[in-house]
Design brief:
With about 280 residues, this protein is mostly helical. The protein contains nine helices and no strands. It folds into two domains: about 40 residues; about 180 residues. Helix 1 runs parallel beside helix 8. The longest helix is centred in the last third of the chain and has 50 residues. The N terminus is likely disordered.
């Protein structure tokens, strides 16, 4: 007749809110200048290159494995779209690697300027001219130096400009340099020594990376050769008239399974040879 009293804590618990996917917010440059290197905007040429690689791979798979232009066309459409993001990531890493090399040369130029007794403002102005001659006006490091020199002319602190560059680049070496430079500049430290030591550390790191890349180059080549071998074997079997080249249900299952294994092995192999410091 009467409703039973609910035990404490028996009230219906509110549903947990679903975790929303975090949206990356680009880091703005000072004075509205500067680019966030965490984000790579693919050009039309990049997209065409990615699509071309996807179509080439699809034709190889569709024709050699399935002996079907229709299968090649279907796979090509999917591959052309699928490779857009991985190719963009590859281009982003390539750009950051180039930026690090440019930054290393920038530190060498700054070291020479500080050794000659130049002020920070003059040292960065000379560095812009030197980097323009070395890498061209359209290079990323020249764009950063233009922003830094413009900021210095508008009375921005060099520390804030360098820290902003470090945040947008996402490079550990740039971030370390910016933080050490900030402390050294405010405490009246030896900028020549700081810049020189940072350049030496980056040089050593790059040399170690090059040695590692040389050591794993043979393994990377073997991986690429092993991925080509299935296509050579299937092409040879087609020439011999083997039944495995037929598109029966059993053969299709075997072929799709083999392709999945090859793709997974290739991705795993790339991760194993991608050694980072």
């Amino acid at each position: 007749m009467f409703g039973k009293n609910k035990a404490p804590g028996a009230e219906k618990k509110p549903k947990k809110a679903r975790k929303q996917k975090e949206v990356y917010v680009p880091i703005p440059g000072i004075m509205g200048m500067g680019e966030d290197y965490h984000i790579y905007h693919m050009t039309i040429a990049d997209r065409l290159m990615a699509a071309g690689l996807g179509v080439a791979a699809a034709v190889a798979v569709g024709y050699v494995f399935f002996n079907s232009l229709i299968a090649a066309a279907i796979i090509a459409a999917g591959s052309a779209l699928f490779l857009q993001k991985p190719f963009g990531e590859y281009q982003k890493k390539k750009r950051l690697k180039k930026l690090l090399l440019e930054f290393k040369d920038l530190l060498e130029t700054l070291t020479s300027s500080y050794s000659a007794g130049q002020t920070t403002t003059r040292a960065f102005a000379d560095a812009q001219s030197e980097m323009s001659n070395l890498y061209g006006e359209e290079s990323d490091i020249v764009a950063e130096l233009k922003m830094i020199n413009a900021g210095l002319q508008h009375n921005y602190n060099i520390e804030d400009l360098l820290l902003n560059f470090a945040a947008r680049s996402g490079l550990d070496d740039v971030d370390s340099f910016a933080n050490v430079f900030e402390v050294c500049n405010r405490k009246g430290g030896n900028l020549k020594q700081i810049v020189g030591e940072t350049r030496s550390v980056i040089n050593d790191k790059i040399e170690i990376e090059m040695e590692i890349q040389t050591m794993v180059a043979a393994s990377r080549n073997e991986l690429n050769i092993m991925m080509v071998m299935p296509f050579i074997i299937m092409f040879t079997m087609r020439g011999l008239g083997d039944n495995m080249t037929d598109n029966s249900l059993t053969n299709l299952v075997v072929k799709f399974t083999a392709l999945a294994i090859f793709a997974g092995a290739y991705v795993l192999g790339l991760k194993l040879v991608d050694i980072k410091l």
